[in-house]
Design a protein that fits this description.
Elements lengths: L2 E2 L11 H11 L4 H22 L5 E2 L7 H8 L8 H6 L2 H10 L1 E2 L4 E2 L4 E3 L6 E3 L2 E2 L11 H10 L6 E5 L1 H7 L1 E2 L10 H18 L3 E5 L9 H17 L4 E5 L9 H6 L4 E5 L6 H6 L9 E7 L9 H15 L4 E5 L21 H4 L5 H15 L5 H19 L6 H8 L12 H12 L16 H11 L5 H22 L3 E2 L11 H6 L1 E4 L6 E4 L2 E3 L3 E7 L6 H9 L4 E7 L1 H6 L2 E2 L5 H21 L4 E5 L14 H16 L7 E6 L8 H6 L4 E4 L9 H7 L4 E4 L12 H14 L18 H25 L1
Parallel strand pairs: 1-14, 2-8, 7-9, 8-10, 10-11, 11-12, 12-13, 13-14, 15-20, 19-21, 20-22, 22-23, 23-24, 24-25
Antiparallel strand pairs: 3-4, 5-6, 16-19, 17-18
Helix pairs in contact: 1-2, 6-8, 12-14, 18-19, 23-24, 27-28
Length: 772
């Protein structure tokens, strides 16, 4: 019985990779410093797993930005716009140019499109394909990292993204072909990579094929058969671990069981039912190894040892002990590093901490379960079993989890609580008369840059080095400066800038009952961007207003409309570590009621526009369509519960990022937000087509400025995007805004970009006036 870790966090226990990467991009750290930090983090992870007793330690799970972008470089699928950079710059700088764009005296190129990795909050860079796309073995990163570990006497299991999943995750950048048809061009490069790994001494290789958790076509399944049958023929000595996660194999199971692979990985956390399906399948061969994904790679709750041992014994009884491996359900990339760092009782109470396991603890759980399954009755192992049982019993019986008043309020909800008073067209007329905004009204998504100085205020206040009065005065000054800047450049609808907020979900987690906050529970979202999801352990309620004070203050500073800024219930749910003892729908509606109270209070103090962001609504969509209807029903209802308590004159905004709306556009319309802002700049407005085809009735702000890149767009670029939008949408329904919040950007680039944005809107208005 082997233990198998599918991947490990890579940003560092205290975000060391983030810090050195950002210094490198700013020119204050050398390439040597960046690469050396990468080596330190990889070695630290490998040694941690080796010392813990993990049998199959992953390599090539580390990345300086994103594992799909790594595969793009490995397979040499470099878009034409980067060719000059490829010729003149290092491979690392080419890599970052593709991820972030590059703008200097010599180059001006946009970044690759970014989207969500399945149903997680992790983002990947979308591969771009053209007809007859050629591939080459451009990067040997997987081979280099295997050898790097070997130099430290650590034999690893290289992790490689399958060519089939890689193609399916990408986009055709021109018509007339299906990207899966490019497989014949890609396979020779892939096999050459595998040959390099085998020659380097690799005997186990994990091939990630998460597309098997999706509804794929027969053609895709045939491509998978071809890949693995040829791989087995070319490399008969290689132990291939076929790895999918995030859902069952579903309709793909029959194909999967025919594949000539050494081991088959099952995500038993997200889909425990598939175990019986496989064990009872007529074409399942009992000599095939099953890698049981029993440790949750996406949440932070302790594994139930007693229940898990029962599952292990059940499988052992049917296929034998030697054919059972114990594994994480997916990569631990989605888990925080180390619970041992959480020493503050004030931040994370022991009463909650005792229920948790971060990545380091999950590795220990895996090894402990192997020992328990083997009958190890040592004092150390039995003590861990007793501690596990005691902690889970305490969680089940805890008085801090359940709140009778919250449950009672939820039970009293009616259909009327999730409906606005009037239809959109009636509300739109009232709002236009009330707000008196020009054509192409300009706004931002909410946050403005948070400087080191602003973050230091929050840190000093938290450490009690700054009094509440002093802190509040600093926040007031920052809000006023932000308002004055927006007025100066001519934005139409202002925001207070969110300088008092650490993160759009963590901030609300700190203020809502039922949440706990860690100090070091960081997980990677994209590139150097890490978030610290709140720990949602109990029933949710809002004890006091959360945003009203600063929103009201901001509005008092200006005669222009200032938007209230809130995070929606679905996003708070999705971007938290969520309790696993009740349905997600029930938890989401509890959050919705808390947000409803805040929306109503913002309206009460006079805010005329309130934005309730739901960037995660598409992300929460189940991977298989058969489960969509149930999810979308309660997700839409939750948003409407949160936003439907206001008068018709109050304009409700929402924001969504990195979404493919085609399949759910009716449900997006059902949200009935007066204004929706979406990210469209990297796709050059392509995402708008679905709104046009659907005849989306409400107002839309298609993003015209990519905030995930430091590049500043020219006025002409923004105009071009707006002209494209104006050909697709009614002018009366178009807003002008960046793609997303500006928190992670620097002030100089933000000011230039927003000035260009406002100028482009003014030019569009003047053209409109000329036309009439």
């Amino acid at each position: 019985m082997k233990t198998n870790v599918l991947g490990y966090p890579r940003i560092g226990a205290k975000r060391e990779l983030k810090k050195v990467s950002e210094r490198y991009w700013k020119g204050t750290a050398t390439k040597t410093e960046l690469v050396e930090m990468g080596k330190q983090l990889k070695l630290s992870n490998w040694k941690l797993m080796q010392n813990a007793g993990i049998d199959l330690i992953p390599s090539n799970d580390f990345s300086f930005y994103d594992q799909v972008l790594d595969a793009t470089l490995t397979y040499g699928c470099i878009p034409a716009r980067y060719q000059k950079i490829k010729e003149k710059e290092s491979q690392l700088d080419l890599y970052f140019a593709m991820a972030r764009g590059l703008q200097n005296n010599e180059f001006d190129v946009t970044a690759m499109e970014m989207t969500k990795w399945f149903d997680t909050n992790y983002h990947y860079l979308v591969p771009e394909f053209t007809a007859n796309q050629e591939f080459e073995l451009f990067s040997l990163k997987p081979v280099h990292e295997f050898k790097e570990a070997l130099a430290h006497n650590i034999t690893t299991k290289p992790v490689v993204l399958s060519p089939v999943t890689y193609l399916l995750l990408g986009k055709e950048k021109e018509g007339g072909f299906n990207r899966i048809d490019l497989l014949d061009n890609l396979l020779p490069v892939f096999y050459k990579l595998i040959e390099g790994l085998v020659d380097a001494g690799a005997t186990y290789i994990q091939i990630d094929e998460p597309c098997l958790a999706l509804d794929i076509t027969d053609k895709d399944r045939e491509a998978i058969k071809k890949l693995y049958s040829t791989l087995a023929y070319k490399f008969p000595e290689l132990n291939v671990i076929l790895t999918s996660y995030f859902d069952c194999y579903g309709d793909n199971l029959e194909t999967v069981l025919q594949l000539p692979v050494h081991a088959l990985h099952l995500d038993l956390v997200r889909c425990s039912l598939q175990l019986d399906d496989i064990l009872n399948a007529t074409n399942f061969k009992n000599d095939k190894i099953l890698s049981l994904g029993i440790i949750d790679g996406r949440n932070i709750w302790k594994t139930n040892f007693e229940d898990t041992i029962a599952t292990i014994k059940k499988v052992e009884a049917q296929i034998g002990k030697d054919n059972v491996w114990l594994a994480t359900s997916c990569s631990l990339l989605h888990s925080p590093y180390d619970l041992d760092l959480e020493e503050s009782e004030e931040a994370l109470p022991v009463s909650v901490k005792q229920w948790l396991a971060f990545a380091k603890q999950k590795v220990d759980e895996l090894v402990t379960l192997k020992k328990l399954a083997a009958g190890d009755a040592s004092k150390e192992v039995l003590t861990k079993l007793v501690d596990n049982t005691r902690a889970l019993k305490a969680k089940k019986e805890s008085s801090i989890i359940h709140n009778a008043a919250v449950k009672a309020r939820l039970s009293l909800l009616t259909a009327k609580d999730s409906e606005r008073n009037a239809e959109f067209l009636s509300r739109q007329k009232i709002q236009k008369d009330q707000l008196k905004l020009p054509a192409y009204p300009t706004t931002t998504i909410g946050s403005f840059p948070q400087t080191k100085e602003v973050r230091s205020w929050r840190s000093k206040f938290k450490k009690k080095e700054l009094s509440l009065d002093a802190y509040n005065q600093l926040i007031k000054q920052e809000i006023e400066e932000t308002i004055r800047f927006q007025e100066k450049i001519g934005l139409d609808v202002l925001v207070h800038g969110e300088c008092e907020r650490n993160d759009m979900v963590e901030y609300f987690g700190e203020k809502l009952e039922g949440f706990a906050i860690s100090n070091f529970g960081w997980v990677q979202s994209y590139g150097s961007r890490a978030v610290k999801p709140p720990i949602l352990f109990g029933d949710v309620s809002r004890p006091v207003p959360m945003t009203v004070k600063w929103s009201d203050y901001a509005q008092s500073l200006s005669s222009k409309v200032v938007k209230g800024m809130l995070t929606g219930p679905v996003t708070i749910l999705q971007w938290s570590f969520v309790r696993n003892d009740q349905s997600r729908s029930e938890t989401c509606k509890q959050i919705a009621l808390a947000i409803r109270d805040e929306v109503n209070d913002l309206e009460e103090v006079g805010l005329q526009a309130i934005q309730v962001d739901e960037p995660a609504i598409r992300e929460g969509l189940p991977l298989r369509k058969e489960h969509w209807s149930a999810y979308l029903s309660w997700a839409v209802e939750s948003f409407k519960i949160a936003t439907s308590g206001v008068a018709d004159k109050t304009q409700i905004h929402t924001h969504m990022c990195y979404c493919e709306f085609n399949d759910i556009i009716q449900h997006i319309a059902n949200l009935d937000a007066d204004v929706i802002t979406i990210e469209t700049s990297r796709s050059k407005m392509d995402l708008l087509n679905v709104f046009v085809d659907f005849k989306y009735p409400n107002e839309i702000g298609p993003g015209v400025y990519d905030i995930h890149s430091p590049r500043v767009p020219e006025v002409s670029e923004i105009e071009e995007l707006l002209q494209k939008a104006s050909k697709l949408l009614p002018v009366d329904n178009i807003w002008v805004n960046p793609d997303c919040g500006l928190k992670t950007r620097d002030w100089p680039e933000t000011k230039l970009a927003l000035e260009n944005l406002v100028q482009a809107a003014k030019t569009m208005r003047s053209k409109l006036e000329t036309a009439y």
